[in-house]
Amino acid sequence: MTTRPVIGISTHLTQAVWDHRSAQRAVLLHERYPRQVQDAGGVAFMLPPDAPAYAPEAVARLDGLVIAGGPDVNPALYGARPHPKTVANAPERDLWEAALLRSALAAGLPLLGICRGMQLLNVVCGGSLVQHLPEAGPHLGSSDGYGRHPVRPLPGTLLAELLPEESVTVPTYHHQAVERLGAGLTVCALAEDDTIEAVSGSGFTLGVQWHPEQGTDLRVMRALVRAARERLSGTTTVTSAAFGSSSDLGFTSGAGLLSPSP
Question: Is the overall model pTM greater than 0.85, yes or no?
Answer without folding.
Answer: yes
